[in-house]
Specification:
The protein has two domains: 158 residues, Nuclear Transport Factor 2, Chain: A, CATH 3.10.450; 108 residues, no CATH class. It is 35% helix and 14% strand. The strands form two sheets. Strands 3-4-5-6-1-2-9 form a seven-stranded mixed sheet. β7 and β8 form a beta hairpin. α3 runs antiparallel to α5. The longest helix is centred in the C-terminal third of the chain and has 27 residues. The chain is globular. The two termini are 37 Å apart. The structure holds heme C. The site of heme C has 22 residues, from β9 and α8. Heme C binds next to β9 and α8.
C-alpha cells in the first residue's frame, strides 16, 4: 500500500507533524503565489483512511488473476455489490468513464456515464483487478482528491460478462484492455466518490501482460439471446451475484423486454444506449435490465413529470396520454419485479445458497 508522499514529513502523519505540515503548506502557498508552483497540501486523515480501506478491500477481494477467470470476477462482484467499503463511499449516482484523450481535460470537459451504485459495483468496478497499491493527491483544478489505484482489466472474460460489448468502439475496448489504473475522485468534505475513471496512461507499470482479444464485430444489439436460449449479457440479469435459484430472474427478463418495447415506442432508445447517439455528456443507460433497474425511479419520475422524452434540441416533448400510461405501467411492473428479486436475495437463507454456475469461455476461439 503506498501513498504519494510529497516529502518525508508527510509519510506518517502525527497530529504534531500534521500541524507542522499545514504551516509548511501555508508557507509554500505563499511561495507558490510568487513562483507559480503547485502548493502541496497534506491529505486529511479521513480521506487517507477511506482510500486505504477501499484499496485494501479491492486488493483482497479483487486480486490480480488470469484475465479470463470468471470465478475470480464473480467473487469480486459479490464482494463489491454487497455492503463494501467501496459502496459506502458511492453517491446516489456516480460518473464513470475513460480518461479523456485530450491532455489536461477536466472532468467537466469529459464525457461520462451516470451509474447507480448497484450498476457500477455489479458490472463495472469488478472488471478490474488490484494489488492494493495506490496514491492520493489533491487536484486543485477539480477541487477533489484523486485516489489512483494500480489496476488491470479482465479482458478475456466471455462477452456476456461485460455490461455491453465495449468493443462496439475500437478505441474504447483498447483503453479498457490496456488499463493500468482506476481513479476515484473524492469530495474533500464527504469522502464520497463523485466520479471514477480508468486510464491506460497512469505512471505505474502494467500489473500483468495483456493478451489482446479480438471480438466479432458488434452488430448493434445491446441485449441478445445466446445459442442456449439465455439472455446476454448474463451480468445484466445479475448472473453471478444473485443466486441461480432466485425465482424472480425470469420475470425480470420478461418485464424488461416489455418495458424495452415501450421505450422504443417512446423514443427513449434513440438516446439512452451505449453508443450515445445524442452525444450526452452525462449519458444515462437504459439498454439492459440491470442498467434500467438502476434508473427505474428516475425513469418513472421523469416520464410522470413529462420531462422525458426530449427532442433533438433537448426540449421536453410529452408523450401522448396512452403511450405515457403504457410506459409507466411497464416501468412499474419492472420495478416491482426488481424489488422482488432484491427482497428474495435479502431474505433467502444463506444455507440454501448454491454457488452460481461458472461460464466456460475460451477467448482464443474468438480470434
Ligand atoms: C433526444 C434524446 C433523448 C430522448 C429521446 C430521451 N432522453 Fe432521457 N435524457 C436525455 C438527456 C440529454 C438527459 C440528461 C442527461 C444529463 O443528466 O445530462 C436525459 C436524462 C434522462 C434520465 C435521468 C435523469 C433525470 O432526468 O432524472 C432518465 C431516467 C431518462 N432520461 C429517461 C428517458 C426516458 C424514459 C425516455 C423515453 C420516454 C427518454 N429519456 C428519452 C436525452 C433523451
Amino acid at each position: 500500500m503506498e501513498k504519494k508522499s510529497r516529502g518525508p514529513m508527510f509519510d506518517r502523519p502525527s497530529p504534531r507533524r500534521a500541524r507542522f505540515a499545514t504551516a509548511a503548506a501555508i508557507g509554500l502557498l505563499a511561495l507558490a503565489g510568487m513562483a507559480n508552483a503547485q502548493p502541496t497540501s497534506p491529505i486529511p486523515p479521513a480521506i487517507e483512511q477511506a482510500a486505504r480501506e477501499i484499496a485494501t478491500e479491492l486488493g483482497r477481494h479483487c486480486p490480480v488473476a488470469p484475465a479470463g477467470d470468471t470465478a475470480a470476477y464473480n467473487a469480486c462482484r459479490r464482494a463489491l455489490f454487497g455492503p463494501s467499503a467501496l459502496r459506502s463511499h458511492l453517491p446516489d449516482f456516480l460518473l464513470w468513464g475513460r480518461q479523456s484523450k485530450a491532455a489536461g481535460a477536466t472532468l467537466r470537459q469529459t464525457n461520462l456515464t451516470q451509474f447507480a451504485p448497484d450498476v457500477w459495483t455489479n458490472m463495472y468496478a469488478p472488471l478490474f483487478m488490484f494489488n492494493g497499491r495506490h496514491t492520493v493527491e489533491w487536484v486543485p483544478e477539480e477541487r477533489m482528491f484523486r485516489v489512483q489505484l494500480e489496476a488491470a482489466f479482465r479482458n478475456r472474460l466471455a462477452p456476456g460478462q461485460f455490461p455491453y460489448p465495449f468493443w462496439h468502439e475500437e478505441s474504447k475496448w483498447a483503453m479498457y484492455e490496456n488499463a493500468n489504473s482506476l481513479m476515484l475522485w473524492m469530495a474533500p468534505n464527504t469522502a464520497k466518490i463523485r466520479a471514477a475513471q480508468f486510464t491506460d496512461r497512469a505512471p505505474n507499470a502494467m500489473l500483468q501482460p495483456v493478451e489482446p482479444v479480438r471480438h466479432a464485430k458488434h452488430e448493434g444489439q445491446w441485449l441478445w439471446t445466446d445459442e442456449k436460449g439465455k439472455t446476454q449479457p448474463a451480468v445484466t440479469l445479475f448472473d453471478g451475484v444473485y443466486r441461480p435459484e432466485n425465482p424472480h430472474i425470469k420475470a425480470m427478463d420478461r418485464q424488461y423486454r416489455d418495458l424495452a418495447l415501450q421505450m422504443r415506442e417512446s423514443q427513449c432508445t434513440q438516446c439512452h444506449v451505449p453508443n450515445n447517439p445524442d452525444k450526452m455528456s452525462r449519458l444515462v443507460l437504459l439498454s439492459t435490465p440491470a442498467h434500467a433497474a438502476g434508473e427505474i425511479d428516475r425513469l418513472i419520475k421523469s416520464v410522470r413529470e413529462d420531462r422525458m422524452p426530449v427532442d433533438e434540441f433537448r426540449l421536453a416533448t410529452p408523450l401522448a396520454a396512452d403511450k405515457r400510461e403504457w410506459l409507466l405501467q411497464r416501468a412499474e411492473a419492472f420495478r416491482a419485479v426488481v424489488q422482488a428479486a432484491q427482497d428474495w436475495e435479502k431474505n433467502a437463507s444463506p444455507a440454501s445458497a448454491s454457488a452460481p454456475p461458472q461460464t466456460a469461455f475460451q477467448p482464443t476461439q474468438q480470434r
